[in-house]
Amino acid sequence: MPALPKIPRGFITNFQGAVPDFVEHTQFIFLLVASALIVLTTSIFLIGIGGFHRPKPQPFPNAEFTFSSTSWEAKYNDYLEKARTAGDPGQAAVYFQKALFTLSADYNRAPSSQKREFLIKLAAFIKTNYPEYSQSVDFEIPCRQTSCGAVFSYSEGLAQIKSGVEAGENLNPQLKEAILINLENAALAAGKGDNKQEFTALTSVFGTLKGEWQRSQDENIKILAEKTLALMKEVDTQSYQAGQEVELYKL
After folding, report:
1. Which of 56, 75, 91, 160 has its CB 3.0 to 4.6 Å from that of 86, i.e. a possible disulfide?
2. What letters, b where the CB count within 10 A reaches 16 and e where it falls short, cover 106-128?
3. Closest CA to 225 of 193, 195, 248
4. Is 119 domain-assigned?
5. How many domains does one find in the chain?
6. Residue 126 above 90 pLDDT?
7. Helix or strand run (H / E) with residue 19
8. By three-state DSSP, how is residue 150 classified?
9. Is the pLDDT assigned to residue 169 strictly greater than 90?
10. What pLDDT, on the 0 to 100 scale, is given for residue 136?
């Protein structure tokens, strides 16, 4: 193999493989090898750091709670089964999220510390195992217990409506449960000082009572609806007036 041409110091050439005159051929090869080793070592180090920070997959948490009804439990288990058998990770993440939202709804109906703790673990499981599919999902865990900081503030008017609903003999159990949950939502919002959220919960109560009054013509239900309207006006006058202008609250 012919010797590589040597270029005097200060000259520039396009000749491939040319070696500077002031660097010996053996030294030049050594520098190339050393540079390659440095680049390789740095790459391995950076890859190692990236792998170190990548979260390890979490196992599915153990469930130690009881559902409020078999229908909610069946719905939850159906989503879990679809998540576990889904071939696509994005679809699996969607079904796990639906399972979480189903359990969250059941927690709102019948709160327990065990359910809430599992909700927290399930949310962490989804975030860790499916981060690319859960970044934009709101995993806010509901709190309806004093043990997790919930404050229920029942004003006199709200307490009267609640007592009237509980005593309502003509309200079917499902309807009564829905109204009481929304009254509790209103009390929870009042405890946070959130008038808008309290008004929204009361609007749901009024809508349910209005529909039942129109169906049954029960005067006791009409009175409860009117009391709810009065409380809505007290809680958020501006929103109440806006609804009145479009006859939204007409019985």
Report:
1. 91
2. bbeeebeeebbebbeebbebbbe
3. 248
4. yes
5. 3
6. yes
7. strand 19-20
8. coil
9. no
10. 86
